[in-house]
Design a protein that fits this description.
By secondary structure, this protein is an alpha/beta fold. The protein is built from 19 helices and eight strands. Bound molecules: Double cubane cluster.
């Protein structure tokens, strides 16, 4: 039996009954999906521990940070520059959630046909389920998709602590200029919030921390290109999910330790599945914790997920920041420009995403691409058509999935995915 955190959760105003239900569901799902896998790397023990303490130890750590007068900044999107949050010595936490609980509460404020990711972040707050939201001093939204943009207005009425960054729709010179100004405005907002000034030294230090994290995640991604893959897609997805709320320095160490072990596995040709098992690239909407549904179905059907062209995946760590800057202004500009390389479907045009999918499919040597979009996620649902064309040109089998966080369609998805894997085995391109 772990430590009892009831008093801490109560002090944060959580709904203890709902919260206990959530933790029960989470630990049951984790046991079934994760702990039942065979031949997992030893390095995953750390991540198992993190999950078992998801609302415990990490929350205690953040409490401690607050006692030391550090602020807590919650984010919902990759475009929010973590370097700047760390440069004011604040704690940065990614707040997207991947569970259905709280959706009924959310639907009292937003339409039913809103994507599950938005419903989840609203619902977690409204149902008193998320200790992270309660600990934040600032919630940073962004003008990406319409659903998020409008949801933040309502979320601000509920929480009174939402700050919105304006993200351009296009990446031309005007868009870049607007974004550079937004990044400056964000830095000023954080300086005001924390009472701490960002200087060159602090920005260089925080940039290094975030880049090292990206490099470790890149290393993990690279190791998945081997056949047999040394780690399951489920485990790699989990590492990426945890990277959004764990301490970044500790996370980097743990990912590198895991990669050392995977290096040895690759040399010894030890894989998590048999050599030659079908290799699948997932592309599309982000999969926040505990959204493991599609990976679990694919890997439960005998294939391996070897990459995620997703914000919980390659889009998060694919590009490093150029740390070679010699003034605060230059640093801010390089940070802004680095974030503009993220290829979210909210941009138009967004052809770089397609090139990236092509590159990944080649590098990871994939046998099939599954496009995953959360129901009502218009940007990714729309772009699926272009991704299909890329797959067709490369003569790679392609499957488009649209789903939500519920388990109702698991049977149907399983049937479709199994048929898709059969197609791959028979070498049919559809
Ligand atoms: S950079 S993908 S994290 S916006 S799933 S809320 S897009 S309707 S999450 Fe995203 Fe930033 Fe883009 Fe990444 Fe809207 Fe789609 Fe819902 Fe989404």
């Amino acid at each position: 039996m772990g430590k009892d955190y009831t008093n801490m959760w109560e002090s944060l105003g959580l709904n203890l009954e709902n919260h206990a239900g959530l933790l029960g569901v989470l630990s049951g799902a984790y046991k079934n999906i994760y702990l039942s896998q065979r031949g997992r790397p030893k390095g995953m023990e750390y991540f198992d521990f993190v999950i078992s303490e998801i609302h415990g130890l990490r929350i205690e750590e953040i409490f401690e940070a607050k006692k030391e007068k550090r602020k807590v900044v919650g984010t919902f999107c990759l475009y929010v520059p973590e370097e700047i949050v760390l440069a004011v010595d604040a704690v940065c936490i990614g707040l997207c959630a991947g569970a259905e609980v709280g959706a009924d509460e959310a639907e009292k404020f937003i339409p039913r046909n809103t994507c599950a990711l938005i419903k989840a972040f609203m619902g977690f707050k409204l149902a008193g389920l998320c200790p992270y939201v309660e600990l934040t001093d600032l919630l940073v939204g962004e003008t990406t998709c319409d659903g998020k943009k409008k949801a933040y207005e309502i979320f601000n009425e509920i929480t009174k602590k939402v700050y919105v960054m304006e993200i351009p729709n296009k990446k031309g010179e005007d868009g870049k200029k607007l974004w550079r100004n937004e990044v400056k405005r964000f830095a000023e907002k954080l300086e005001e919030l924390t009472g701490k000034k960002i200087d060159l030294e602090k920005l260089k230090a925080s940039s290094k921390i975030v880049n090292e994290k990206r490099k470790a995640l890149q290393r993990l991604s690279f190791l998945r290109s081997y056949d047999p893959a040394p780690i399951s897609g489920l485990d790699a997805l989990l590492v990426n999910q945890v990277s959004f709320y764990d301490d970044p320095i500790r996370l980097t160490t743990k990912v590198n330790e895991l990669c050392d072990e995977l290096d040895a596995r690759v040399k010894a040709e030890i894989g998590i599945a048999e050599k030659g098992s079908p290799r699948v690239l997932i592309s599309g909407s982000p999969m926040a914790i505990p959204n493991w549904k599609v990976h679990a179905i694919i890997e439960g059907s005998g294939a391996m997920v070897v990459g995620e062209e997703s914000c919980v995946g390659e889009r998060n760590f694919g590009t490093l920041l150029d740390e070679d800057f010699y003034s605060l202004e230059e640093g801010m500009q390089k940070i802004a420009d680095r974030y503009m390389t993220i290829n979210c479907a909210c941009f138009t045009p967004n052809d770089e995403r397609l090139r990236n999918i092509e590159d990944l499919a080649k590098r990871l040597n994939v046998d099939g691409i599954i496009h995953y979009a959360i129901q009502f996620c218009t940007p990714y649902l729309m772009e699926a058509f272009k991704v299909r064309k890329v797959a067709e040109t490369m003569e790679i089998p392609f499957l488009r999935i649209e789903t939500d966080y519920s388990m109702e369609d698991v049977g149907q998805l399983k049937t479709r995915i199994e048929a898709f894997l059969e197609m791959i085995e028979k070498g049919v391109i559809a």
